Amino acid sequence: MPEQSSKNTQQNATISLPRELPLETPLWRFSLSIWKLPDAQSSLLYLQDEYGLKVNRLLFCCWLGFEKRELLADKLESDPLLAQWSNQTVAPLRSIRKQLKQVAPHHPQLKATVQSAELQAEQVEQALLFNKTDLFSQPSMQGKTLQTLSYNLQSYTQQALSHDDQIEQEALIPYLISLVHAAIPNHERTHIEAYFAK
Known about the structure:
mainly alpha, two-stranded antiparallel ribbon
């Protein structure tokens, strides 16, 4: 019994945010600029809502591409602090905001308050990602921004989705391509598709 109790305590332990965590990062500024692009925003929201992929991690993949860095998806997905903050703070706030659309449509100020808290939580999550850039990535061996960015997105989605979800992984590729095309509009879509071909 004592061993089981100790195990449960470890599982339920709260992991604290770092004391020093600058929020205004290059990643955050990049993400704000990408979010303003309608095609990028719609692709990100679809990938989140339909496949459970995390918008901040998709944006992190894109930013790393421009920084000529390759994602280490296994390190990203196994980070305990990032997982806890995303699952226990960001996701619940998003759920509450969506719920308020139905249960409190005549109280916009309440929704705005929750939405503001959600945005701040998202910014903290991005700060955590940026803070561990060297842990979650390495200098790219791919050469080109487009190639690295495409590689990062595929690495993340393959790691995040179950190996049994092969059909889903193939179905989401057009949305990943749309995201890349929005981020790097000077490349033709057909050119981008070549980096996602099997």
